[in-house]
Fold this protein.
Amino acid sequence: MSTFRQGLDEPLCEAWERFKMLLKRCPNHGFEDITQLSNFHNGLRPNTKMILNSSIKGTLMVMDSEQATRIIDVLALIDYQVQHDRKVG
């Protein structure tokens, strides 16, 4: 988890799902929630990180972990819908 990196062509929705799977595979990892989010945030490509930060008009890392997770979940869902629409059309 501490070495997580978003793939070159990996959309946010896939990166978030992959990161959550890593967490599920290692339930005794010992990372606090805020550290988990920091690892995810730091592993994002710069353009994805910029979109995430601009969507909250600041930086994700100043929020509490529960609020930040909700925002990532919503943005990942929107990204998934965009990715799905793009592939169908």
